């Protein structure tokens, strides 16, 4: 295919095509223009070249920009296309946004692992990872339009400028819209190398940093937004699984004939850990599930009681045998020998459930010859953009189409694709019928994947001058990075540090939960600092200020939060304020104000103030919403949420016994200040949540003189601390 298409007049063009896709080479040297209806041409180009197709321009001026990330309420459906539109100088009012195809070589980013492309909406990395990709692609699209306008007017491209979907020639007072250019577009032989210096400077941004309504909110409000659970296909059947609440136990079904005789039952599908049922309707599948008679095998989890395990964790933390060193600087042992005082404490956290609003679900349709598959799913994507389906069916990646949908909550749970695998295995049994698999809330709690239970043993040494000279941090728990991340201190100047992970496992399924290990570990770090401050007669802000002297950006968040909260002013009677600092991509200091009912043990959070440095802020209003949501989710997990295991079995089954924060418990006031910065954007989705536990516990310590060291801070544990 020639890189210069045949030029047709505007009327012919609009009859023939709904628009033009700009296919811009990953290296910026192989752009193509193809009619959006020329599907074979698009396929051919994608086969022949590593190309990125980011934008479609219609003759009426409408612009469609592709979003490569999942949208689960964090705003990526707006922020990433907005970055592209900024460099393209697109009129945002004419922009529509669509999910990109799940093709990692085309739409992936190296932001997660240099040298390896991923489409993975996790770790608060989407904006940071795609920021340079979207800017460069947007600048390339703008250049192509400018190049064609220069040809059309026969003027040097250097005389042209652009604004809000128009190319302008100021010398002759002419302008032409991007839509009017669409029918006459041809491709330049080369494109400039758009280095950072050749892209817009932050002072010139017209969209980035402004208050822009999120693109998907109207459809979510009026009910037209489509989630995977909304998908309905012709001849669709339904699948459910009975997994039990004993993790890793194997099932034996003893009444298969009775189940098959029930109305609407199509097939029973055994799994290593579950029994699957396929039926004509969801109601029939769920009714059959109720009547399954299953004998469960032995499981490694049998005999495990989560609330009784902590003494053994304490023993493991005290063993001289080393675990895996996560981080080490200086000589902690030497510093302890020279110390005038050593502070020690153990901090604990129970299992936490993701509690995403939309139950796990997926729709899978497999061709009758089992050589092609199509999936409709709300997924946080993953290392494999095709979610494991090609390997499962033994077919090429290109034979699997993933239709990404909105997610009704993820928090790390939907970065695991076990539910997609289950749906695929069910669909394989009844191909070519499409199968919708749905996990009930009871399924997800009983056989969930939880933030791990863990223990953090902290030991800090103080020299004769009152300086913090060492900090050792032993993490005991299951899951590696799930319990060990966030234990490193990059912004506190502590000369001797040791972080060590000591592994245990009880056969319970564990998974990334918002901010991963930062929640428990920042809780332990921030609380030990306040216990040191109390013991040394220091102000909690002052001890952090001293430790942050070599980290001015972190210090700026501390100072701003203290100013916002009027830290130095006396607290209202019966209240106290607590502080915590967190780095999770962005840097943030949070201060909360609490009171405690001495009779019931209930903690009330009245106010929360946050100062955040997240680099360039793409969507300020959305970042503030993210921080507010993170604080509220953090409060829910810190004050209420708790999964308990008795004899290997999960005790909670639904929201009547897995408590969440209620509307009456949210703070009266949450205020976020965004610190101006021209640095690369950093993640914000996981910065607020980990600061909550430390801030509340430290406020409690200032109010009562008593430490809180075991999450969640249930009324029973609060009363125990008050009376201890």
Task: Tell me what the structure shows.
The protein is α+β, with helices and mostly antiparallel strands and 724 residues long. It folds into three domains: 10-210, Aldehyde oxidase/xanthine dehydrogenase, molybdopterin binding domain (Aldehyde Oxidoreductase, domain 4); 228-299 and 360-438, Aldehyde oxidase/xanthine dehydrogenase, molybdopterin binding domain (Aldehyde Oxidoreductase, domain 4, 2-Layer Sandwich), CATH 3.30.365; 306-352 and 450-723, Aldehyde Oxidoreductase, domain 4. It is 30% helix and 25% strand. The strands form eight sheets. A seven-stranded mixed beta sheet has the order 13-14-11-22-18-19-21. Strands 16-25-24-23-17-32 form a six-stranded mixed beta sheet. A five-stranded mixed beta sheet has the order 2-1-3-4-5, sandwiched between helices. Helix 16 packs parallel to helix 20 (689-704) and helix 19 (620-639) packs across helix 20 (689-704). The longest helix has 28 residues, at 126-153. It starts with 9 loop residues before the first helix and ends with a helix. Residues 222-300 form the Aldehyde oxidase/xanthine dehydrogenase a/b hammerhead domain. InterPro entries: Ald_Oxase/Xan_DH_a/b, Ald_Oxase/Xan_DH_a/b_sf, AldOxase/xan_DH_MoCoBD1, AldOxase/xan_DH_MoCoBD2, AldOxase/xan_DH_Mopterin-bd_sf, N-heterocyclic_Hydroxylase, OxRdtase_Mopterin-bd_su_IorB, TAT_signal. This is Xanthine dehydrogenase family protein molybdopterin-binding subunit. Pfam families: MoCoBD_1 (PF02738), MoCoBD_2 (PF20256).
């Amino acid at each position: 295919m020639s890189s210069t298409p045949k030029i047709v007049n505007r009327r012919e063009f609009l009859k023939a095509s709904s628009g033009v896709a700009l296919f811009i080479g990953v290296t910026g040297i192989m752009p193509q223009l193809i009619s959006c209806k020329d599907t074979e041409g698009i396929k051919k180009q994608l086969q022949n070249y590593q190309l990125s197709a980011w934008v479609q321009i219609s003759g009426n001026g409408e612009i469609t920009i592709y979003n490569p990330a999942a949208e689960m309420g964090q705003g990526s459906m707006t922020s990433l296309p907005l970055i592209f539109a900024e460099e393209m100088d697109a009129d945002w009012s004419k922009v529509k946004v669509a999910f990109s195809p799940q093709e990692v070589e085309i739409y992936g980013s190296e932001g997660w692992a240099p040298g390896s492309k991923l489409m993975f909406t996790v770790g608060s990395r989407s904006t940071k990872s795609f920021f340079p990709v979207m800017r460069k692609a947007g600048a390339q699209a703008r250049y192509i339009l400018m190049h064609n306008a220069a040809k059309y007017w026969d003027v040097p491209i250097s005389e042209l400028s652009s604004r809000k979907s128009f190319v302008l020639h100021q010398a002759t007072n002419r302008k032409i819209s991007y839509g009017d250019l669409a029918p006459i577009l041809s491709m330049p032989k080369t494109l400039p190398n758009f280095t950072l210096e050749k892209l817009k400077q932050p002072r010139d941004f017209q969209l980035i940093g402004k208050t822009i309504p999120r693109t998907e909110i109207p459809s979510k409000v009026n009910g037209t937004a489509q989630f995977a659970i909304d998908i309905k296909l012709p001849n669709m059947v339904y699948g459910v699984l009975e997994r039990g609440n004993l993790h890793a136990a194997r099932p034996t079904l003893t009444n298969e004939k009775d189940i098959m005789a029930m109305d609407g039952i199509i097939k029973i599908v055994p799994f290593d850990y579950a029994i699957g049922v396929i039926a004509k309707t969801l109601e029939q599948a769920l009714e059959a599930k109720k009547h399954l008679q299953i004998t469960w095998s032995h499981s490694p989890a049998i005999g495990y009681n989560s609330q009784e395990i902590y003494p053994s964790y304490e023993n493991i933390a005290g063993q001289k045998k080393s675990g895996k060193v996560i981080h080490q600087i200086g000589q902690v042992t030497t510093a302890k020998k020279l110390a005038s005082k050593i502070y020690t404490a153990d901090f604990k956290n129970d299992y936490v459930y993701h509690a995403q609003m939309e139950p796990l679900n997926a729709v899978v349709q497999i061709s009758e010859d089992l050589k092609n598959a199509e999936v409709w799913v709300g997924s946080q994507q993953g290392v494999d953009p095709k979610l494991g389906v090609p390997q499962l069916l033994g077919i090429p990646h290109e034979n699997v189409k993933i239709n990404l949908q909105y997610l009704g909550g993820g928090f790390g749970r939907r970065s695991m694709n076990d539910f997609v695998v289950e749906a695929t295995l069910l669909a394989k049994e009844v191909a070519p019928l499409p199968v919708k698999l749905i996990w009930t809330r009871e399924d997800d709690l009983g056989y969930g994947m939880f933030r791990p239970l863990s223990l953090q043993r902290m030991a800090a040494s103080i020299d004769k001058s009152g300086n913090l000279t060492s900090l050792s941090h032993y993490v005991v728990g299951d899951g590696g990075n799930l319990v060990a991340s966030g234990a490193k201190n990059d912004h506190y100047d502590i000369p001797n540090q040791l972080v060590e992970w000591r592994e245990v496992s009880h056969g319970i399924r564990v998974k990334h939960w918002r901010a991963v290990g930062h929640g428990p570990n920042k809780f332990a770090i921030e609380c030990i600092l306040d216990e040191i401050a109390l013991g040394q007669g220091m102000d909690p802000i002052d001890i952090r200020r001293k430790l942050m002297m070599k980290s001015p950006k972190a210090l700026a968040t501390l100072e701003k939060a203290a100013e916002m909260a009027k830290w130095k002013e006396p607290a209202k009677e019966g209240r106290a304020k607590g502080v915590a600092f967190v780095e999770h991509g962005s840097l943030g200091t949070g201060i909360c104000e609490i009171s405690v009912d001495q009779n019931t043990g209930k903690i009330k959070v009245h106010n929360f103030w946050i100062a955040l440095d997240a680099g360039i802020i793409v969507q300020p209003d959305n970042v503030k919403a993210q921080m507010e949501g993170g604080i509220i989710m953090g409060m829910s997990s810190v004050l209420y949420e708790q999964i308990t295991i008795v004899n290997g079995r999960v005790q909670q089954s639904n929201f009547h016994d897995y408590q969440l924060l209620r509307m009456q418990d949210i703070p009266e006031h949450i205020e976020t200040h965004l610190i101006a910065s021209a640095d690369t954007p950093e993640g914000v989705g996981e910065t607020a949540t980990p600061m909550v536990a430390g801030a509340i516990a430290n406020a409690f310590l200032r109010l009562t003189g008593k430490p809180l060291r075991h999450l969640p801070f249930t009324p029973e544990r609060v009363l125990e601390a008050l009376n201890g």
